[in-house]
Amino acid sequence: MAAKEQTDRHPNPPEVENPKMNPDTDGPSNQIKDPDDWVSGHEPMTGAQASYLKTLSEQAKDPDAFAPDLDKAEASKRIDALKGETGR
Rounded CA gap, 73 and 14, in Å? Predict the structure, then answer.
């Protein structure tokens, strides 16, 4: 006899509204937060941020926009600015 497959999923999950998917609900959304307000904003930028910032600074012909010692918040702000300049 074959064993019945056991899952942890509810056969009829209740409808639950995800407040991150609907920013018009009561309360503030945390989908978009100012980089200055990030808890980890003072930590060194991630490898992905460094790579993307380097690429964007080269495309924008603005090599000074990239600095290897930036923190996450500053890297994010520079990425956003360069995305506007390069049309990305």
Answer: 38
